[in-house]
Amino acid sequence: MNHLCSNAIAGHRGSKEYEYQKQRQEQIDELVETCLSTDDRTFVEEILFDLGVIAERETEVVYRQGLKDGVWLLRNLGVLA
Is residue 62 part of a domain? Predict the structure, then answer.
C-alpha cells in the first residue's frame, strides 16, 4: 500500500494542481516571513505545521480506506476470489 500511495503522490506532483498549490505555499511563506514578528512567525509556523500533519494523516487514512473499499467491491462483484 505504501508503494501505491507513493505512486499516487508522484503522479500528483506532476499536475497543474500541484504547481498551483506549490506557488500558493510560497506566497503564504512569504506573507508569514514579511508580515509577522519573530514570535508571531514561530507561533504561526507551528500551527501551520501541525495542520499539515493532521491533513496528511487524514489523507492517508482516506486513501487506505479507498483501497480497502475497492478490494471489497471487487470481491463482491466476483472479480477477486
Answer: yes
Task: Tell me the CA distances in angstroms from 30 to 8, 9, 13, 22, 26, one per residue in order.
Answer: 29, 25, 22, 12, 6
Q: In which residue are the cell numbers 506566497 written?
A: 27
Residue 71: C-alpha distances to residues 2, 20, 74, 81 (Å): 16, 33, 5, 10
Give 62-80 pLDDT, tens digit per residue.
988 998 999 999 999 999 8
Domain containing residue 20: 2-76
> How far is the C-alpha of 57 from the C-alpha of 36, rounded, in Å?
28
Place of cell 471489497: 72
Q: Which residues of the chain have pLDDT under 50?
A: none
Q: Per the domain annotation, does 81 fall within a domain?
A: no
Distance CA 31, CA 75 (A): 50
